[in-house]
Amino acid sequence: MTSVITLLTDYGLEDGYVAACHGVIAGIAPQARVIDVCHLIPSGDVRRGAAVLAQTIPYLPPGIHIGAVDPGAGGARRAVAVDAGGRVFIGPDNGLLSWAVRASGGARAAYEISNAEHFLRPVSPTFHGRDVFSPVAGRLSGGLEITDLGPEVPVDRLVVLPEPTSQLREGCVEGEVVSVDRYGNTQLSIAAGDLHALGVQVGDTLGVWLGRRQLSLPYRETYAAVPPGELVAFADSAGLIAIAVNSGDAAQRLGLPPGAHVRLSPTP
Amino acid sequence: MTSVITLLTDYGLEDGYVAACHGVIAGIAPQARVIDVCHLIPSGDVRRGAAVLAQTIPYLPPGIHIGAVDPGAGGARRAVAVDAGGRVFIGPDNGLLSWAVRASGGARAAYEISNAEHFLRPVSPTFHGRDVFSPVAGRLSGGLEITDLGPEVPVDRLVVLPEPTSQLREGCVEGEVVSVDRYGNTQLSIAAGDLHALGVQVGDTLGVWLGRRQLSLPYRETYAAVPPGELVAFADSAGLIAIAVNSGDAAQRLGLPPGAHVRLSPTP
Amino acid sequence: MTSVITLLTDYGLEDGYVAACHGVIAGIAPQARVIDVCHLIPSGDVRRGAAVLAQTIPYLPPGIHIGAVDPGAGGARRAVAVDAGGRVFIGPDNGLLSWAVRASGGARAAYEISNAEHFLRPVSPTFHGRDVFSPVAGRLSGGLEITDLGPEVPVDRLVVLPEPTSQLREGCVEGEVVSVDRYGNTQLSIAAGDLHALGVQVGDTLGVWLGRRQLSLPYRETYAAVPPGELVAFADSAGLIAIAVNSGDAAQRLGLPPGAHVRLSPTP
Q1: CATH of the domain at C50
Q2: C105 lies in which domain range?
């Protein structure tokens, strides 16, 4: 099938958990190339995991993509393999994979991962990444058919995470903070295209409402277009509007957590 | 010999130290696949390094396994290569490797790493990972015999770290906190099998003594079996009893550092 | 050309940014081996990035070396590819690459990276690592000529970062703190050779001036040569004098930030 396997987890880097997954894959599929997408998803933060996976997937070669952010591990949720756009996504059916599946063109077929002959034995109820997802990915990489994993799941029964909302209105566009990166850059759910549809161009000034607060921010091509310490809005590397402070931390300065409501409008 | 080389260190990820090891290995043994086990072992914490290595090793393909947590680097401790269960462990003879060697079936033979013709020159007294362990691993991967590294060391002279104690008594089992992971899950030295030998089954309530404090905790298959915020005991992915808070931090809640004494018993 | 590509960035590990670079390279140059040099360079800290790259480069196989610490991304700075000592360095022309280029024997030729047919489209103004440097590195690895990237840049027009100063005087040597690692070891710009030229030998006591403070420190082969908690000076793994506390944090103890002035002399 394919020789690329990618891993996104909330396992952190302070233990051997990620290495155990690499080791299991290397033992089963020595020919596979493993790419770490991210292992510092905050513990159990399915939304953050979904966002990072969906925004990275367009830059990863087609392959087998494991997602393991799984606060319900060992509980009732099922594990699934989803065929989408020439890729196979593997993980818990808790919405984690849903945005990346959509970014890959939508699910073509899905299968419950239930055939235990492809798992390590015993399966730790709390470490499906090592005992279920990694060996299954290795075997798929070696030629196992996805249909051998378990019964088919109708694609409209897959758990889908609600997308961050964004709404183009008369004269403004409303959205929310999707995520904050380690620079403090605050990514909104508002596509650059929606802002441009309102007539905003690079070089203009934006009206920004954060709850009841109102700001005017320069809209530029990048944060480097304003002096250090100044606020700026720009289209980020995912095509979404971000609010940043050049060489500073906008999320902290503005007190903007993920989920906070934001409204943008052209300044007349 | 083998084409897998693994690395466990306390070098951290903020410098180029780990990359220098990767580079040295890639230059000498371009065919080798390098797997990072962990580089965030707390500085000089040999016990933590030993625990992470021993718990990960069953999931790594047989290979050459470097351990570099070495507070005595440049001092009197010797460097060793230990042949155990089809694997070769390389590192300081300070006990770091001892639990992984035992988990691999025990040492079959050991050699002092003293033949400087296999090292980088000059050897930095503070960076044997780069200048000694990495080139030696690369050369072993390329076919060098382990017997060429230096004089044999009797395996009963290797430094062995005391294992965390656990004792099955009449009606209870005593042990200690082995380690705390980034979720705050507290791993005990008590094997699930010992608890089951007392008649405890998943679904029961456990009596837990922490010093003079006594708690009753549900014993479940996983932390997800209790509501968020509640304490639970379960058999973790290494087969040891862990105390956790679902979506919370048990080590912080209970004030349980590594080494703390714990006693478990069935609740009548 | 070469099959090794290395990556040094300030992207951090909490997002999918590094993975996107790996993915782009794997898609274009599946044969290339990618080595991560460091991704935790403090955001925008070009000097720290330059120091880590220059001190690691002697241990990396010849290859294509990407540096992306780029506070001016999207601004006026140009991107360059520099041919030096059988290696190709790729990154912003902001001095980041300059110390590694010097450590590799100096620039033989340099080219502006301006030929957009080798880039991803569209190019995000804030993520040249993914959209410019990674695809260009992949294509060079696949055989593209460096001369195809854009117009030649005279090597004496490349931005060069001022090196940390060090001056051998009558009876003393002056320098500055270059960097502080995660152990709190404080690396000075003073080469061990300069200290030895003053007649200092391992085993001697050093006079150390930190501004107006004066200390006497043992000069030893390694930090392990003094009892835990004690200060010591030694030649570090880069051949530079470092001040450390055995099992402690010298930078914190002495209040020594990067750039602080230090003078060393033999104690009579």
Answers
A1: 3.40.50.10790
A2: 4-157
Question: What ipTM was assigned to the predicted interfaces of this complex?
Answer: 0.88
User: Do B125 and C222 lie within an 8 Å CB cutoff?
Assistant: yes
> Quick one: average pLDDT of A15-21?
96
> What pLDDT, on a 0 to 100 scale, did the predictor assign at position C74?
61
Name every chain B residue with its beta carbon within 8 A of the beta carbon of A43.
Answer: 182-183, 247
B202 and B75 inside one domain? no
From chain B, which residues contact C within 8 Å (Cβ)? 12-16, 19-20, 22-24, 26-27, 30, 43-44, 71-75, 124-127, 130-131
Residue C228, domain CATH: 2.40.30.90
Q: A127 and A205: one domain? A: no
Q: What is the DSSP letter of B204?
A: -
Partners for A (CB, 8 Å, 3+ pairs)? Answer: B, C
Nearest to A37 among C16, C43, C130 (CB): C16
Give, in order, the Cα–Cα distances in Å from B15 to each of A264, B36, C36, C96, C192: 41, 15, 11, 15, 21
C196 φ, ψ to 5°? -65, -30
Query: A249 and A130, same structural domain?
Result: no
Closest residue in A to C29 (Cα) is A61
C139-149 average pLDDT score: 97
Which parts of A26-63 are beta strand (E)?
33-38
Q: Are residues A190 and A226 in the same domain?
A: yes
**Residue B188 pLDDT more than 90?**
yes
Instruction: Count each helix (H run) and each strand (E run) in chain C, helices first.
Output: 7, 15
Suggest the residue from B237, B240, B245, B249 to mutate for an interface test with chain A (most A CBs closer than 10 A).
Answer: B237
Distance from CA of B46 to the nearest CA of A (A): 14
For residues C174 and C93, state if they share a domain. no
pLDDT score for C2: 57
Q: Searching chain B, which residue's CA lies closest to the CA of residue A135?
A: B59
Boundary residue ending a domain (A157, A184, A209): A157
- The answer to whether C30 contacts A33, with C-beta atoms less than 8 Å apart, is yes
Higher-pLDDT residue of C16 and A225 is C16
Same structural domain, A141 and A9: yes
E-assigned strand segments in chain A: 4-9, 33-38, 64-68, 79-84, 87-92, 109-112, 152-153, 167-169, 172-180, 186-191, 205-210, 213-218, 231-235, 240-245, 261-266
Give chain A positions within 8 Å (CB) of C27.
59-61
Statement: residue A75 has pLDDT above 70:
no
Q: What is the mean pLDDT of residues A203-219?
A: 92
Q: Is residue A162 part of a domain?
A: no
Angle at B146 between CA B144 and CA B147, to 5 degrees: 110
pLDDT of residue A130: 97
Q: Pick the more confident residue, A68 or A183.
A: A68
Q: Can you give the pLDDT at residue C73?
A: 67
Q: What is the mean pLDDT of residues B212-236?
A: 91
Give the total number of structural domains in chain A.
2
Residues on chain C touching A59 (C-beta within 8 angstroms): 19-20, 23-24, 27, 130
Q: Are residues B194 and B149 in the same domain?
A: no
Q: Mean pLDDT score of chain B, rounded to an integer?
A: 93
Looking at residue C1, what is its pLDDT? 44
Residue of B nearest to C40 (CA): B14
Reported as a pLDDT band with limits 50, 70 and 90, residue A238 is: confident
Contact at CB, A37 and C19, closer than 8 angstroms = yes
pLDDT, residue A1, reads 44
Q: What is the CA radius of gyration of chain A?
A: 21
pLDDT at C183 over 70: yes
* Partner-chain contact A59 C14, CB within 8 Å: no
Q: Tell me how far the alpha carbon of residue C74 is from its chain's centroid.
A: 23
How much is the average pLDDT of A80-94? Answer: 97
List residues in chain B touching A: CB distance below 8 A: 3-4, 6, 8, 13, 33, 35-40, 52-53, 55-56, 59-61, 181-183, 221-225, 234-237, 247
The separation between the first and the last C-alpha atoms of chain B, rounded to the nearest angstrom, is: 55
Distance of CA B222 to the CA centre of its chain: 23
Q: Which pLDDT value is given to residue B182?
A: 76
Structure tokens that stand for A123 in this block: 């399966």
pTM, two decimal places: 0.90
